[in-house]
């Protein structure tokens, strides 16, 4: 039985923008593990392997269920130690810092550009749940969020810090990608797969790194369906 | 001949607040290398090993002169490969990201609280150079910078991202300190050694990590002289 990843899907089940599900997809590809993705909606938690937990990513591998992208990455490195996602615990700690930076800096900048788009693309049965949960999270209506100005510039400014490691190394992991790359690129898949067009222009050398990340694993991320 | 580190000093030559000189001091201690520090002022570049470069840290080891804290760290790992500062190039890339984060997030928050203090503590012959160079850098007078409000809260907010790695690991380097720890803690020595009192309250678990960093190497950083 192959490994299963529960992955958020929009009305079109091929649209899968969830950033932390993407982090896990990159991690599974890095490990060269076969896996299938199981699309789930936002609202109906009975589709989830653990309805009470009510979030994804969750993987089911044989009889084991593992939740939360960081925990999944650590679990993959324990169970499948070849080709580690984090070769040292210093690299694992750095991935935690990148994840915290994504939440503190990139997500607040990009989220207002995405919420109305995702609402429009969500399945009918998910729309009211999505609206209610996101409006509670942000303390604004979806329409107020969508009307926020200057977000593109904020996103582009937030990305400048990535120019330091990527100006010196091909990947955040150094000469090859590691969990840090998958954490950050996973978060960049969220806007990429929530809009037909690119919503911001990454500064160099970040933009070139994004292209390299899209090319990995036979172009897996580049081939992911975008909205039309 | 022992290794020499050129280190910025204030009017009291035992006051050495330069953040990137501190990164290098931590790196030299980590390598268990004997070194002496050579105090230099801000203005008189003829004291510097490379007056035209006109910055510190610079180390002189035998006949070699190495400039810039990141370059010095990489050079130390090449010349003295035991006990690496960065065990993988993923760790070295992460240290670049922490350094960029320090410049983008911590320094803009803390600098307005420090510039007038350092000006007051600088040697008489350095004061006009220090005022001119810092007022050009910030586009404000020292007195305007000192009058900025809300910086303590900005500093404390900026430190929250460090709680993610430090909530899971004892050090940014994992179970032991690495170049990431020295980069960040070096920057925290700047406010510590520019004021008699603590200027902000780090959130936990960052505060506990700072205490661990002060304890390293027989309390080297904790023993560093603070202004009275």
Major sheet characteristics of chain A:
4 strands, mixed
Oligomer state of the chains in this structure: homodimer
The low-confidence parts of chain A are none
Number of strands of chain A: 4
- Spatial strand sequence of the major β-sheet of chain A: 2-1-3-4
CATH architecture of the largest domain in chain A: Up-down Bundle
Overview of the molecule:
2 copies of one chain form a homodimer. The first copy, chain A, contains 9 helices and 4 strands. The first copy, chain A, has 228 residues and is of the alpha+beta class. The first copy, chain A, folds into 2 domains: 3-79, Glutaredoxin (3-Layer(aba) Sandwich); 89-223, Glutathione S-transferase Yfyf (Class Pi), Chain A, domain 2 (Up-down Bundle), CATH 1.20.1050.10. The N and C termini of chain A lie far apart (34 Å). The first copy, chain A, has helices at residues 19-30, 69-79, 89-121, 124-138, 142-146, 151-158, 163-168, 179-192, 206-223; strands at residues 3-8, 35-40, 58-61, 64-67. The radius of gyration of chain A is 17 Å and the shape is globular. The model of chain A has no long low-confidence stretch (mean pLDDT 97). Chain A has a 4-stranded mixed sheet, covered by helices on one side. The A-B interface holds A 86-94, 96-101, 104, 160-165, 167-169, 171-175, 178, 180 and B 86-94, 96-101, 104, 160-165, 167-169, 171-175, 178, 180.
């Amino acid at each position: 039985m192959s490994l299963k990843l529960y992955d958020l899907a929009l009305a079109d089940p091929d649209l899968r923008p969830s950033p932390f599900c993407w982090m896990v997809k990159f991690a599974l590809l890095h490990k060269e593990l076969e896996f299938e993705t199981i699309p789930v909606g936002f609202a109906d938690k009975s589709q989830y392997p653990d309805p009470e937990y009510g979030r994804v990513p969750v993987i089911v591998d044989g009889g084991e269920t593992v939740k939360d992208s960081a925990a999944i990455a650590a679990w993959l490195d324990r169970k499948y130690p070849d080709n580690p996602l984090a070769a040292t615990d210093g690299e694992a700690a750095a991935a935690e810092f990148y994840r915290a930076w994504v939440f503190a800096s990139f997500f607040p900048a990009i989220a207002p550009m995405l919420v109305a788009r995702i609402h429009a693309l969500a399945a009918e049965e998910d729309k009211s749940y999505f609206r209610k949960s996101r409006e509670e999270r942000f303390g604004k209506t979806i329409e107020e969020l969508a009307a926020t100005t200057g977000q593109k510039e904020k996103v582009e400014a937030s990305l400048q810090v990535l120019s330091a490691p990527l100006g010196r190394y091909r990947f955040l992991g150094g000469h090859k990608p590691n969990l840090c790359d998958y954490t950050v690129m996973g978060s960049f898949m969220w806007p990429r797969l929530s809009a037909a067009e690119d919503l911001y222009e990454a500064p160099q050398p970040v933009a070139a790194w994004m292209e390299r990340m899209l090319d990995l694993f036979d172009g897996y991320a580049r081939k992911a369906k975008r909205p039309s």
